[in-house]
Design goal:
The chain has about 230 residues and is mainly α. The protein is built from 6 helices and no strands. Among the domains are: about 15-110, Helix Hairpins (Orthogonal Bundle); about 155-200 and about 210-230, no CATH class. The protein has helices spanning about 15-50, 55-110, 115-140, 155-175, 185-190, 215-230. This is Vacuolar-sorting protein SNF7.
Length: about 230
């Protein structure tokens, strides 16, 4: 019974195999340079003794021929090793690529383990609902609120006209002249007396006006005020 077990052969990795082949190629290159040197040396001997000693020259050519054959075989070996190294490199690249793709597939399986199309649709529906709600809230906030205060447009217009009349009276008082109150005209009459309005086909009824102040300067001032307000002079 054999008590000694043979040592298990270690598995060669692609990287180790490529390194070993590259080292072999380096050794063959050095060997080729050495043989090429011997070929050059034998050729030199043959040329030197070609005319003086034909026997020595012939032996030198024979040795050169042997070295040539050896160099040719070594070149073929180099080509084979280089092709093998390239094949191993390509196979190793394919192997690493497949490993990376397998890891990617495992990662995708892990991601999609708790994810399906129903959950995606539900999530997108929730997002749409929340976006619609956000838009509604934004619209509601942006609406102006008076908080129970009711506004009468006619009343505001009347108040504005009083303020305008007060301002005109102040301007007249500052100028040293008697203030003149302008009569309120209906909108239709103001539009009819506007410089851009077309002449009416029918005569308009005469409106009631306050007594005109007897001073000529006040009439001129009244005409200027009417003109600034877009009304034709009476």
């Amino acid at each position: 019974m054999n008590l000694f077990f043979a040592k298990k052969k270690e598995k060669t990795t692609p990287k180790d195999a490529i390194i070993n082949l590259r080292e072999t190629l380096t050794m063959l290159e050095k060997r080729e340079l050495h043989i090429q040197g011997k070929i050059d040396h034998e050729l030199k001997i043959a040329r030197t003794n070609a005319t003086s000693n034909r026997r020595v020259a012939l032996l030198a050519l024979k040795r050169k021929k042997l070295y040539d054959n050896q160099l040719e075989k070594m070149s073929g070996t180099r080509m084979t090793i280089e092709a093998q190294a390239m094949s191993i490199e390509a196979a190793n690249v394919n192997l690493e690529t497949m490993k990376a793709m397998e890891r990617g597939a495992e990662a995708m399986k892990h991601i999609h383990k708790d994810l399906n199309i129903d959950k995606v649709d539900q999530t997108m529906e929730d997002i749409r609902e929340q976006m619609d709600l956000a838009n509604e809230v934004s619209d509601a906030i942006s609406q102006p609120q008076l908080f129970g205060a009711e506004m009468d447009e006619d009343e505001l217009e009347a108040e504005l006209e009083e303020l305008e009349q007060e301002e005109l009276d102040k301007q007249l008082l500052n100028s040293g002249r008697v203030p003149v109150s302008l009569p309120k005209l209906p909108p239709q009459t103001v539009a009819a007396r506007s410089p851009t309005a077309q002449p009416l086909s029918q005569p308009q009824p005469q409106r009631n006006t306050r007594p005109v102040v007897e001073h000529v300067d006040e009439d001129d001032e009244l005409a200027e005020l009417r003109e600034s307000m877009g009304m034709a002079a009476m």
